[in-house]
Design goal:
Elements (H helix, E strand, L loop, with lengths): L6 E5 L2 H13 L5 E5 L25 E7 L17 H5 L1 H15 E10 L9 H10 L3 E3 L4 E5 L8 E5 L21 E5 L2
Parallel strand pairs: 1-2, 3-4
Antiparallel strand pairs: 4-8, 5-8, 6-7
Length: about 190
């Protein structure tokens, strides 16, 4: 971004918003604005509903959107002792779709929408992306790359490399790569 433009961070949990604000201030990132708001309601239906610099926003307000959707979190810290019911695990999909619908409407033509979760369930990842591509013909799936950081001595800066990784039959990278995180899906809106 080169400190041009702004980043709008929205979450309905006040503590998360506070932490984002604190981290932005610590890093002297003045281009980040945070809002405690329900993202399912972030789309204004007309000019009179539009917030001043904050939510709700008019259609096609954003060049890029990172939708880090609420999820079951089953990929965060795998635990074989989960006591969740099937109903609890599947309860996230409708909310994720609501958020997806809002995000697509807020995205400018030609913009980029990244959908991300920290779970491993097909219903919250691949099935959601397939649904979005079918529901919104303006979206197209982009090829994925995995980003990982390579660290040298402590006084050297971190160098980030973007690489394609071949997966083995088990779904794990063929080469032992230390992963910072997986980007689930990136879709661009057609111009």
């Amino acid at each position: 971004m080169q400190f041009v433009g702004e980043v709008i961070a929205i979450d309905k949990i006040a503590d998360k918003v506070k932490k984002i604000s604190q981290n932005a201030a610590l890093l002297k990132l003045n281009c980040i604005k945070t809002f405690c708001y329900d993202s399912t309601k972030a789309l204004a239906t007309d000019q009179t509903e539009c917030g001043r610099g904050g939510p709700p926003f008019l259609r096609e307000s954003f060049d890029r959107i990172l939708l880090d959707a609420p999820c079951s979190g089953m990929g965060q810290r795998p635990n074989m002792a989960y006591s969740w019911s099937l109903k609890e695990v599947t309860s996230y999909q409708p909310l994720q779709r609501k958020l997806f619908r809002v995000a697509v409407q807020l995205l400018k033509p030609g913009g980029t929408l990244i959908y991300s979760t920290c779970t491993i369930t097909l219903s919250e990842n691949e099935e959601q992306v397939a649904w979005a591509l079918q529901t919104f013909p303006c979206l197209q799936l982009q090829s994925q790359v995995i980003a990982y950081a390579v660290f040298g001595r402590w006084e050297e800066q971190m160098e980030v490399k973007y690489v394609s990784v071949d997966l083995t039959e088990s779904g794990q990278p063929a080469d032992p790569v230390e992963r910072v995180g997986w980007r689930n899906s990136c879709v661009d809106e057609l111009p």
